[in-house]
Amino acid sequence: MTVTPMMAQFLEIKSGYRDALLFYRMGDFYEMFFEDAVNASEALDIALTKRGKHDGEDIPMCGVPVHSAEGYLLTLIRKGFRVAVCEQLESPAEAKKRGSKSVVKRDVVRLVTPGTLTEESLLEARRHNFLAAFAEVRDAQALAWVDISTGAFHVMPLSPLRLGPELARLAPSELIVSESSEPGLRETAEDFGIALTGLARSAFDSTGGEQRLCALFGVSTLDAWANFSRAEVSAMGAVLQYLDITQKGQLPLLRPPRREAEARTVQIDAATRRNLELTQALSGGRAGSLLSVLDRTVTAGGARLLERRLSSPSRDLDTIHMRLDAAGYFADDNALRQKTRDQLRRVPDLDRALSRLSLDRGGPRDLAAMRNGLTQAQHLRQDLQTGDLPSLQQAAIADFDGHGALIDLLDTALIAEPPLLARDGGFIAAGLDEDLDEARQLRDEGRGVIARMQKEYVSDTGISSLKIKHNNVLGYFIETPSTHADKMLSAPLSETFIHRQTTASQVRFTTVELSEMETKILNAGSRALEIEKRLFEELRQAVLSSAGPVARTAAALAETDTAAALAELAVAENWIRPRVDDSRCFEITGGRHPVVEHALRQQSGEPFIANDCALSAGGDDAQIWLLTGPNMAGKSTFLRQNALIAILAQMGSFVPAADAHIGLISQLFSRVGASDDLARGRSTFMVEMVETAAILNQADDRALVILDEIGRGTATYDGLSIAWATLEHLHDVNKSRALFATHYHEMTALAGKLTGVENATVAVKEWEGEVIFLHEVRKGAADRSYGVQVAQLAGLPPAVIARARVVLDALEKGEREGGVTQKTLIDDLPLFAATPPPPPAPQKTSELEKTLEDIHPDELTPREALDLLYKLKEAARS
């Protein structure tokens, strides 16, 4: 069967986007056909219908309304689809000028992918949406990443071993790689939930990349920013090439690229980030993470900056101290802090508004965001310019000013609360443009204008019965009774009034003025909208001409919000400023776990038991605490809280402790908890060993290492030997500061052998056969693990607990008396099924208990109660 022209157009456009769903614009709907329709209807749970036939088969079809397309786009992107948006490039009326059967011109205007979202409804306001590219040029590698919704653009050289940790830090939505590298990196991308996109090798050509970068930023060389390597230029060039493909040549407003160096931030691998739940809880989602407790920011830009700081703690002392100074400045002045935060609450997301405007996807509300945000920046400058400001705030307020002309322009041009879309109109304030005011008046008050003209004509002619009327044939016309025909048709009125029609009782006329007014009234609505669109474009260009200063103001606002938020947190939670220096000290007094403390307060109101930690190493020696004690006592919490305190200190935050002195940490490693990786055939023990190997192979003498229960996933003696050797390696080779928790009490002997190892234990108390966890860390070693008691608390059946105690006693006795073998254990202990535990003996009721049961307190007089109390006391003595 012959393909219709419209379907032929669809198939031609679709041939260029085989790996994407094609949103084909048909009036007020985006429609999909063939396999696209089948896939989209299933993913979106919408009806699948049909339209026409192709090769004798029905053509599957589904569609979504244009006005609600963003929600459907988000669903499709989250389910792994890419969407090519195909728009009508002309109206049906324009198409018909070429012939009655001409098809409206259409083409793809944008390819929507996970890393190229800009719409407010498709993005999380408080998180970045990074698009990254990994490039390899001979023996060099680099990673570039960009957030087109904010304009952030970064690059860094790195080794292939660092790719995983950096992807864990940045959490990009999409990763661009060379097609030749795509198979080898697919598993890595899947591990982090990143969409992987392969590009032709030509996209990674460093020469072409440099040309694209220079053209974008209007420079002849990149030397002004850094001496980028070929690998770095290759990665950045690939990002720009992909943006050119997806945005169809409409490149976003990007800031000049900034190089990041590994040596400037604390290196944290993916396993450590996961174990410490920095930005995401193990259960998934933000709730329960450190970020969820830390985030008191009141702006979207501040929230994104806070997450960046938390994900990338600094190793630069000057940077750390400046950030601590800024937080301390706001912590010391409650009134100023609250006033600043109140001002910041009214600051919109300038970065994303600016990005949408640069891509021509913005609307009147983005212009209003510019006006409101820049106005608030001016108010903040006035509030903060008094007093002795720390250096970060001095730099910030310098960027708050300089937008007076732009603010005045936007304030004069826009109404207070404009609509979302420019096509809705009504956002330009009255009085800005005379033509717009006239068009609006005609649109809204057409009848009034005609009535005034009628009044004027009555006055000019002296004919009180003259009327201006309207019909679909003549349009607007002047009508008088036929008795006045001679007067109207004679000079001087005939020079103004033009005869149009005569009826039996009426004569109809028009005037040049009335004809022009009719045209204006009929076109007033569309003319007003066209004028507003023109003015919107002028305002958009005015904003874009100040894009650099606006972006700096947005950054300064985010900096101020982050500092004030950290100060608010410190005051509310009683956190203190840490001392951070270049030593190898690690001394925490009264340290607390911020997330656990917050959860306790929310759930039960119980206080968190604070603990000290001292890993102050002298010279080149390691300093390791070997921590023993039972499960459930808080060992893992203690390990994690010290790692989190280190991160908080180096990101520039106050910390949950009574005092903290931290020498700079270069790397942070955490091996806590148990997990498997069955998809790769890795058992829990294999995962544990892989993570431990990474620590031992990479940790340096500035690292902080957190290890919990190394070796527990295998046989006792195998596990003990691995844990023993691991601790010796950390001490002798890595020379790291470390907290090493273990159930192997035999290892406590290492404290007497290794000079940098000290024993510590989590205290417990036994009372009437039960164990009470005190959650206190003390110097010394535990001699028991209390595993059976913990099992009892967990609710194991009493018979199992009783049997476990019997087996434990036998094992401990055998060890004391010279060892126990499997055979002697079996021979000495009857089978469980053959020796059920005896039923509990009935308890005898004492005379005292009998007396208490017979007492009815409400029936006693005070005298009788006192006598009874003496009687009970005597009975207790006997």
TrEMBL record:
GO annotation, biological process: mismatch repair
Source organism, top-level taxon: Bacteria
PROSITE patterns: DNA_MISMATCH_REPAIR_2
One example GO MF annotation: ATP binding
One GO location term (cellular component): cytosol
Pfam families linked to this entry: MutS_I, MutS_II, MutS_III, MutS_IV, MutS_V
Domain DNA mismatch repair proteins mutS family: 703-719
Keyword set, alphabetical order: ATP-binding, DNA damage, DNA repair, DNA-binding, Nucleotide-binding
The family this protein is said to belong to: Belongs to the DNA mismatch repair MutS family.
Protein name: DNA mismatch repair protein MutS
Species of the source: Roseobacter ponti
